[in-house]
């Protein structure tokens, strides 16, 4: 379970940063950035914050709303950044993820002196000192909160995209390559939200061209 051990190592304004959406075939990659200003969060948040992938969608939604309620009370600061499918294609998913992280930190009302980045890859040209934490969303409250923010925000965004592009089941698969998504591609082709640098989409485009 997460705790504040990593935050305590630096004894300064520290932000947790995590992303959602590196693997999907469509949609942006989204990063969340969270600074826990007041550690006396309500019991629901402290007990519930964890790696977003270990939580049910319903629990993530409730925690997301609770985090923004805590922000309204001045207990946390939240930033969200994203990089589009086009940006992913123009650079690559790693560089686009780093850009989304930089944008998330730039959105914070309180600027941090230190960032804890989930994973083992450290963005270059970050706005503050940054340190990687492998499986950080299960170790640090700040990173766990960021993972929930990024995941829920992206899931909601993909549900909205499903209204514009109703044939790919984005509201259910969040852009991952499910059977319904593949059926949509076969029947209706590639949308501007698809990542054309991703091999499955490239192969689909080649099939259509041949």
Short description:
The protein has 210 residues and is of the alpha/beta class. The chain has helices at residues 5-10, 43-48, 57-72, 85-90, 93-106, 141-164, 170-173, 179-188, 199-209, and strands at 14-20, 29-36, 76-83, 114-118, 129-133.
Shape: globular
How many helix segments?
Answer: 9
- Tell me the total number of β-strands: 5
CATH topology category name:
Nucleotidyltransferase, domain 5
Identify the strand order in the major beta sheet.
3-2-1-4-5
Q: In which range does the helix fraction lie?
A: 40-55%
Task: Give structural notes.
There is one protein chain. The protein has 210 residues and is an alpha/beta fold. The protein has one domain: 2-Layer Sandwich (Nucleotidyltransferase, domain 5), CATH 3.30.420.10. 46% of the residues lie in helices and 16% in strands. It has nine helices and five strands. It has a five-stranded mixed sheet. Helix 3 crosses helix 6. The longest helix is centred in the last third of the chain and has 24 residues. The protein starts with a helix and ends with a helix.
């Amino acid at each position: 379970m997460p705790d504040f051990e990593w935050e305590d190592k630096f004894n300064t304004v520290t932000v947790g940063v995590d992303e959602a959406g590196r693997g999907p075939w469509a949609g942006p990659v989204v990063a969340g950035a969270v600074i826990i200003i007041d550690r006396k969060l309500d019991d629901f948040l402290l007990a519930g914050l964890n790696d977003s992938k270990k939580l049910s969608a319903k629990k993530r939604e409730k925690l997301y709303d609770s985090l923004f309620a805590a922000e309204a009370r001045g207990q946390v600061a939240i930033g969200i950044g994203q990089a589009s499918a086009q940006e992913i294609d123009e650079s690559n998913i790693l560089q686009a993820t780093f850009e989304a992280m930089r944008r998330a930190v730039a959105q914070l009302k309180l600027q941090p002196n230190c960032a804890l980045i989930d994973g083992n890859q450290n963005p270059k040209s970050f706005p503050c000192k940054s340190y990687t934490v492998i499986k950080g969303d299960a170790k640090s409250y700040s990173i766990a909160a960021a993972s929930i923010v990024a995941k829920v925000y992206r899931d909601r965004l993909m549900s909205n995209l499903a209204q514009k592009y109703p044939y790919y089941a984005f509201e259910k698969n969040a852009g991952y390559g499910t059977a319904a998504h593949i059926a949509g591609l076969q029947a209706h082709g590639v949308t501007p939200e698809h990542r054309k640098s991703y091999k499955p989409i490239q192969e689909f485009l080649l099939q259509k061209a041949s």
